[in-house]
Amino acid sequence: MAVIPKFVGARIKRREDPRLISGTATYVDDVRLPDTLTAVVLRSPHPHARINSIDVAAARSAPGVVAVLTGEDLKGKVGGIPCVAPAEHIPFHPLLAQGKVRFVGESVAVVVASDAYLAQDAADLIDVDYDPLDAVSDPEKALADGAPILHEEFGANLATRALIPNPAVDEAIAKADRVIKFRIVNQRLAPVPMETRGVLAQWHQASGQLTLWTSTQIPHLLRSALAAVLSLPENRVRVIAPEVGGGFGAKLNFYREEALVAYLSRMLGRPVKWIERRRENLATTTHGRDQITYLEVPVKNDGTVLALKAKFICDMGAYLQLLTPAIPGFSGLMMTGCYKIPAMSFEQVMVFTNKMATDAYRGAGRPEAAYIAERTMDMVAAELGLDPVEVRRRNFIPKEAFPYATCAGLVYDSGDYNAALNKALEIVDYPKMRAEQAEALKHGRYIGIGIASYVEICGIGPSAMLPPKVPGWESATVRMEPDSRITVLTGISPHGQGQETTFAQMAADAFGVDIDDVAVVHGDTAIVQYGVGTFGSRGLSVGGTAVMMSVGKLQEKLKKIASTMMEAPPDQLTFTNRTVALKSDAAKAIPLQAVVDAAYGWKMPIPGMEPGLDATSVFEPTGCTFPFGTHIAVVEIDPDTGVVTFLRYVAVDDCGNIISPLLVAGQVHGGIAQGIAQALYEEVVYDENGQLVTATLMDYAAPRARMLPHYELAHTVTPSPLNPMGVKGVGEAGTIGSTPCMVNAVLDALKPLGVRHIDMPLRPEKLWRAFKDAKKA
Amino acid sequence: MFPSQFEYHRAASIKDALDLLKQFGDDAKLLSGGHSLIPMMKLRLAQPAHLIDVTKIAELRAISESHGKIVIGAAATHDTVANSDLVRAKLGLLAEAAAAIGDVQVRNRGTIGGSLTHADPAADYPATALALEAEIKLDRDGGSRAVKAADFFLDLMTTAIQPGELLTQVAFAPIPSGTGYAYLKYPHPASGFAIVGVAAIAALDRSGKFANLRVGVTGLGPKAFRATAVEAALAGKAADAATIAAAASKTADGVDALGDIHASSEYRSELARVYARRAIQAAVARAKA
Ligand SMILES: Cc1cc2nc3c(=O)[nH]c(=O)nc-3n(C[C@H](O)[C@H](O)[C@H](O)COP(=O)(O)OP(=O)(O)OC[C@H]3O[C@@H](n4cnc5c(N)ncnc54)[C@H](O)[C@@H]3O)c2cc1C
Question: A120, B189: Cβ pair inside 8 Å?
Answer without folding.
Answer: no
